[in-house]
Each structure stands twice: as structure tokens, then as C-alpha cells.
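Service request form, structural biology core

Requester: graduate student, group of Dr. S.
Request type: structure prediction, single chain
Budget code: on file
Notes: please return the result as C-alpha cells.

Sequence provided:
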Amino acid sequence: MTDEYFMQDAIRQAVKAYEADEVPVGAVVVREGAVIARAWNQVELLKDATAHAEMIALTAAEAAVGDWRLTGCTLYVTKEPCPMCAGALVHCRIDRVVFGADDPKGGAAGGAMNLLQFPTLNHACDITSGVMEPDCRSLLQTFFKEKRKPSNGIEQ
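Core staff response, request fulfilled:
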């Protein structure tokens, strides 16, 4: 299985978020070549600022393996993780983070900062960026473009 294969699964999760009027971010956790958790942003649905796709996927993956340590796992996510999610990824010891669209303003995997490889933390994640980036970015851009349209349909 390739990074693109698993990112397509994350994109399917992001589409679920889009359809639920959530910021379209999707995530999957893979261990030994198999998906063990899938999630999409549910901040609005759950009224929970921590309900990012990555956080929900991590909780599901921890339940699947029966431990909070997710060594041997890779997270695929359509957008570069924020600082909250990056901190959780380091703490649960994810081996690798693969993302599509970068976030130069708020990303914590090399965009605005790099918490995934912060030198004083007790764990560092390998990072692969830009996987299926045009598809991941397009979904986000379309979502926010629609959000900016006034009710009369004329873009501002």
C-alpha cells in the first residue's frame, strides 16, 4: 500500500466533514499496513474545540490497539496538524505523520512551527508532506470559498 492509497481514505473522511458543514479534514491511522482508525473533523457537531480529525482518530486507534502508545503507527491527514494535534501525536508516539495540504499560518509540522520534531520533547515523528496536496487543498479552498459567499450567492 502506498501513501497515496491511505491519503485517498483520509480524503474520503474529509468529504464526510465537508458534507456535515465541518472544515474538511480527514485522518486515518495505519498499523502494519491496515487502517485501524478513521475520523473527520466534528468540532461543530460535537461542540468540542478538540474534536479535530486527528484527535478523534488517535482516540479510536488507542482503543483499537488497547494502549495509548501508538508506536508502529502512521497518521495520514489531509491538512498539516495544528499545535494541539501535533502535541497529541508526539505524546502518543506516532512513528510517522503524512499530510496533504500545508498550513503556513498555523501548522505544527513545519508550517508555522515544527512540534513533531521539537528537539527537547521525548519523541519525534517522521514527516512526509505534500501527499495528494492538490486534492487536499482544493477541498479546503472550495469549502472556505463557499463559506465566504453571502446568502445572495454573490462572492465578496
